[in-house]
Structures are given as structure tokens and as C-alpha cells.
Give the backbone structure.
Amino acid sequence: MAESTRTAETVSHPGSGALSAPGAARRYWLVLTALALVGGLSGFGLLAWDNPMPVGSRGFWLIANLRTENLIVMAVVAFCQTLATVSFQTVTNNRIITPSIMGFESLYVAIQTASVYFLGAAGLAMLQGVPQFILQVLLMVGFALLLYGWLLSGRYGNLHVMLLIGIITGGGLGSVSAFMQRLLTPSEFDLLAARLFGSVSNADADYLPIAIPLCLVAGIALWWKARSLNVLALGKDVAQNLGLRHRTQTMQVLFLVSILMAVSTSLVGPMTFFGFLAATLAYQFAGTYDHRYIFPVALLTGFSVLTLAYFVMNHIFYAQGVVSIIIELVGGSVFLIVILRKGRL
């Protein structure tokens, strides 16, 4: 409430802007430049480190091109997770929840587990391929639309009830998945476990021609709605008094969020706290309410965190498989710190 009030005061002040404080614009562009440098250097490090060929030679670029696929996947995941999390937190007016609360990742885990449970180890192989990737995205987006349409379109539609139903549905899917996992053989469970941790190695290059256009369309649409998101952040009553069709705008934003989350989850698997971590840092770095400025900072923060984490774990600790676990651990710790500082949910 305090943040909404402060934002409202800033918006209503004549002559004020998103970066109205002295030095705010200079600080913002310095932060953006620093994040771009960190992300660029980490990305180049992933391409060049341990490359046996001389820098700039034909062999060097051939090896670097083979590593470019993972870098593109990281950029897509950072784009999807950060834009979706910032937009979702704005429409729900709550900065401690993530779109994962709507059950996207629980549905992904249920699909992967059910394929092994009913079809055996061959089930995972049957889920590989462009048609299967598109089917998973459609299932997740359809699931989200069903939830939004049911709980937000009625006369008594309520955002908080929708979040509660999403938590319950996610918990139910998680319980069903846990039950099926207990009935798998050790070898089947071992194969399944590798798919249940978010990793860029889960992505297939054939998915990118589908994933990138979907992300760009949803991301550009959210950027186009940046000013509406600024008003939505003020709360339902204020937004309606300012003439914004709150329910329509909320459903449109949630639909775009569902596309981004479905693409990211289907591509690399669950990354529950990554979006939360990047969004929380972005709010601190950007120092403004305006989503036109928050989105670029969030994107660069997410990309820097992801590339830096993979560089450190790949080339210093030689433990690529635990990158997502480390990110989830740090993200979960930041979540607890935010909760303790706020003193409430």
C-alpha cells in the first residue's frame, strides 16, 4: 500500500517523470551499462573459455558457434522469466509471488512424470520433438486461460481467489506427480529426475524457431502495455477511477504472461525462483515505477545472473548440473529476506 501511495504521488506530481530525482537518469543508464557489460562478458566467457583454438581463428569461431545455442536459450529464458514475473507481480499488486504460483511448473512435472509412468523410459523420448513442444505450450496456455476465464470473467471474479485456486491446483498436480514417481523403477526415476531440474541442456535447438517468435510477440505486447501496467500497479480502484478497464487489461496481461511462462518451462524445465530473483534485483537497480525502464533492467539482470552462474559453475567448479539448484537456493534465500523485511505476505 505504501508503495502504491508513493507511486501515485509520483505520478500525480506535475512535471515529475519516471526518473525525476537528481541524478536518477545518470544512475539508471550507468546501471544498465554495467549490467550489459556483465552479461556481455559472461556470455563471451561461455563462448571463449577453454576454447583450444586461437582467438579470432576460423576454428575458434566454429567451436564458439557450437556453444551459441546454449547462450541463445539463456537469453530466451531470461526474457520470458523476467518480463513475465514483473508483469505478473504488477497485475497482482504483490512483489513476493511469481507466475509459477499458477501451476505452470506443476503441470510440466505432471506431464513428464505421466509420460514415464504410462509409457516407461520411452515416454521421455516420445515427448521430444517440435510437435510435442508445441503441444506442451498449448496445454499450459490452455490451462491458464481456463483458470483466468473461469475465475476472472464472472461478475464476482476475484484475483485473489484465482491465485488461491492456482496454488491448490499446483499442489494437487504435485501430489499426483509424487505418487506416480514413487511407483517408478529406480532407473526410470533416474531418467525422469534429470528432466525435473531446470537446465539449458534440456532445450533442443529445433524448438527455438517456435519459441523465439512467441516470446517476441508476447514481450512486445507487454512493452506496448507498459503505461497500462504503470496504472495497474496503483491498484484496482485507482486504475478504474483513472478510466482503465481493469479486468480486461488484467486478463490480457495474464494471457501474455502465460505464453512466456509456458515457453520457458517447456524449453528448459522448472525455474521457480529465477524470475523472482531477477525481478527483485531489477526493482532495486531501476529505482523507478515505470515499466518502460524496469523491463530492460530486469532482462539484463536475468541474463547476467544466468550467464554468470553457468560460467562460474561450468569453468570454476565444473558442476554444470547444479546451476539451477544454486539459482533456486539464492532465489529462495532472497525470497525469505524480502518476507522478513516486509514482515508480512
Summary: Confidence is low (pLDDT under 50) at residues 1-15. The CA atoms of residues 20 and 283 lie 16 Å apart.
